[in-house]
Amino acid sequence: PAWTRSWRCWSGAARRRGGFDAVIAFGPAANGLVALARPRSGVQIILSERGDPFIRRRRKWNRLFLWLYRRADVLVVGTEALAAVLHRDWRRPPKLEVIPNALSPQVPVVARAKPRATVIAAVGRLVPSKRFADLIDAFARIDARSDWTITLIGDGDERAALAAHAGVRGVGARVRFLGFHPAPWEVLATADIFVLCSQNEGFPNVILEAMASGCAVVASDCRFGPRELIEDGVSGVLYPVGDVERLGSILAALIDDPERRAALGRAAGERVRRFTMEAAARR
């Protein structure tokens, strides 16, 4: 398998110390392989955990991850919240550094133009953990706002099920599945509201893209990321994960208050300027 060849290659290179002083790994698989092959001395090991190490599919691996991550000189994480959890739950964690993701330089920070299309946009893989059905259910609760629509940007195994669900809830004709888009911020720049409903995140770059695009951002208060990106009530609105009734109330209030949407969009555009590539590079 490719990962076995990669591990053998890195393990041999680490032992030979082929002219390098450090190795930086990204993601659980690479982190584990690099930590496992670590030589006894010489090469500095820097691991980067960009996701949520506590999601359900990884729980049985947590003890192994802890053992492996302790072999690192530094473990880099994306949020202060994740660093706090690791300090609390992992005895003798490795040295931790927090480096948030940066807004990609290819994503422009645009001024919020008036008027915008009456569109609620969402972006991501169409999988259960993104909870797009929550958005459809919340939208169905405010069906009286007949001029509003949903645009889902992304693809995945749940696409057919979500389309069927929208039909059952009576909003099938008003939910647009755009599929994969290489530059979703181009679509977000025309939408009025952006919603993230995720069960969990590591650091949702799409929120940065929505903020840069001037959307009024609504996000689930999931672990990890949204609370550190959004100042709740100022540059966006947070709601409890899975609380469809609360999400529906927030959307109804925003739809009925264009000035509120505009204020959130302007504040989001200002806040996102903190997450520059230069700031991340310095850290």
Structure description:
- By secondary structure, the chain is an alpha/beta fold.
- A six-stranded parallel sheet has the order 7-6-5-8-9-10, sandwiched between helices. A four-stranded parallel sheet has the order 1-2-3-4.
- Strand 1, helix 2 and strand 2 form a beta-alpha-beta unit.
- The longest helix has 15 residues.
- The protein is elongated and about 65 Å long.
- The chain starts with a helix and ends with a helix.
- The mean pLDDT is 89.
Protein traits:
283 residues, 10 strands, elongated, 12 helices, 4-stranded parallel sheet, alpha/beta
Q: Overall mean pLDDT score?
A: 89
Q: Which value, in Å, is the CA radius of gyration? A: 21 Å
Detail the poorly predicted runs: none
Number of strands: 10
Helix count equals: 12
Give me the side-by-side strand order of the main sheet.
Answer: 7-6-5-8-9-10
Beta fraction: 15-25%
Query: What percent of residues adopt helix (DSSP H or I)?
Result: 25-40%
Element-by-element helix/strand order? HEHEHEHEEHEHEHEHEHEHHH
Describe the biggest sheet?
A: 6 strands, parallel
In quaternary terms, these chains amount to: single chain
Our measurement of the CA-to-CA distance between the termini, rounded to an integer number of angstroms, reads 35 Å
The secondary-structure class comes to alpha/beta
